[in-house]
Amino acid sequence: MAKDLRDFLKTVKARGQLRTVTTQVDPNLEIAEISNRLLQAGGPAVMFENVKGSPHPVVVNLLGTVERVCWAMGMKHPEELEVLGKKLGMLQQPKPPKKISQAIDLGKVLFDVVKAKPSRDWLPACQQVVKLDDNVDLTQIPMIRPYPKDGGKVVTLGLVITKDCETGVPNVGVYRLQLQSKNTMTVQWLSVRGGARHLRKAAERGKNLEIAIAIGVDPLVILAAATPIPVDLSEWLFAGLYSGRGISLAKCKTVDLEVPSMSEFVLEGTITPGETATDGPFGDHMGYYGGINEDAPLIRFHCMTHRKDPVYLTTFSGRPPKEEAMMAIALNRIYTPILRQQVTEIVDFFLPMEALSYKAAIISIDKSYPGQARRAAMAFWTALPQFTYTIFVIVVDIDFNIRDPRQVVWAVTSKVDPIRDVFILPDSPFDSLDFANERLGLGSRMGIDATTKIAPETAHEWGEQLESDPIMAELVTRRWKEYGLDDINLGEADANVFGYDIH
Predict the structure, then answer these.
(1) Which of 121, 150, 218, 284 is the catalytic position?
(2) In this structure, is residue 322 part of a structural domain?
(3) CATH number, residue 428
(4) How far apart are CA 302 and CA 441, in angstroms?
(5) Minimal CA–CA distance to 393: which of 340, 331, 350, 342?
(6) How many independent structural domains does the chain possess?
(7) 46 bridge partner residues
(8) Domain enclosing residue 210, as ranges
């Protein structure tokens, strides 16, 4: 398990997945264009060592494949994330153990929580260099501008840390920040997020809100902060549960907040309630430019600390594949045990990247009674808060590979009568960035029952699905080399040979 960003970069490089570019590149559009091409190809992470206008290198595409996301979690395969999901499920809805084995499992989870408690670093690497007041110059950070109509340069993978002025409980989120001047930035967060709630509370009490931005942390901490899991754990404790050990925190120099001690950059500042600036437009995860926010909270920074020779970690949003999509695909595995716990008929589920990793879900069920598919779809929408914005839910039988789009399309086209099997729920709340809705923030949902129908769902017998004779299939497998066909790759074929046009 990596201890910080640099340690993880060493791991990725050792595994042949990190390239270094020494040619000078421009953070204005050029870095994003290079990165986007590599993302489309499932290519490596890149460190740009010679960035125009900045003395610091830039790392992009670090989490650009599911494989590298798993590495960041200390795992080899996405399936391993389900173990973490089971732990979270036990914490979310603990049940009194009925067996000694269940009591032992619960005890192990609680012990993991104890191990996950953060520690304090009194000589943190993130404060090797300290710049105060007029010496703070955010323009020295090589922030990128991804798209030609973007409103400015952005920080995208910074941990935004605030604290509830009443309870003292911190919130750690990953929000977009736009550069406004050498010492100011705007933050773009939804009104329901923790940082926005803290700002409202501070305003009610006539106080400024202290804020810290930690940039270039262990990717595992980013994943923990970005994971919307309904468990009452602090993000620091949650990150420790991810890693199996407590993360090291450092107290900020000028604000009463804590940050990961091995951060590459730390920015410290305040938000004065009511002080705003224009933010946007920016390319967003939907694949379009988002709107302009005339009233984005303005952060004034009075302190910047960083490690010696810091590395700037960044990414950008847009139509998949992007790093955020890879993160979502891997982290979906965490939700699976929690979802099964809450909706027992669901065997597995998948959020396709092409559907922005949340707008469409394919779920499989072990069907045993009529109407079960519709019940499963309805339950899915209410199981976890992040599924509120899922528009389409397709339900298939247990024997379908939900991660193979060809099988899903076949299920829909061979098992669905639209009048009977498609149902629509109007006037549901949605992401305001979803331009497909007639009214921003409000739209409809669609459920599709693509399962085999049973009485009284159908008045006739269902055809028997074609299957190979198992004895003959085994015989052919044994004799494949004898046929002289062993040089033919029987893995997944290039989709283009079947008439697709995929570049």
Answers:
(1) 284
(2) no
(3) 3.40.1670.10
(4) 37
(5) 350
(6) 2
(7) 19, 60
(8) 5-313
Going residue by residue through the chain, which has 503 residues, state the pLDDT in tens, using 9 for 90 and above: 578 999 999 999 999 999 999 999 999 999 999 999 999 999 999 999 999 999 999 999 999 998 999 999 888 887 788 877 776 766 655 555 455 554 445 455 554 666 778 889 999 999 999 999 999 999 999 999 999 999 999 999 999 999 999 888 899 999 999 999 999 999 999 777 789 999 999 999 999 999 999 999 999 999 888 876 555 667 888 788 777 788 999 999 999 999 999 999 999 999 999 999 999 999 988 888 988 999 999 999 999 999 999 999 999 999 888 999 888 887 788 888 878 888 888 999 999 988 888 889 999 999 999 999 999 999 999 887 778 889 999 999 999 999 998 899 999 999 999 999 999 999 887 766 666 777 777 889 999 999 999 999 988 888 888 888 999 999 999 998 998 888 888 876 677 776 777 76
Type of residue found at 473: A
What pTM, to 2 d.p., does this model score? 0.85
Query: How far is the C-alpha of 329 from the C-alpha of 349, rounded, in Å?
Result: 11
Asked if 390 and 271 sit in the same domain, the reply is no
Query: Same structural domain for residues 90 and 178?
Result: yes
Q: Let me know the angle formed at the C-alpha of 326 by 283 and 444, rounded to the nearest 5 degrees.
A: 65
Is position 284 annotated as part of the catalytic site?
A: yes
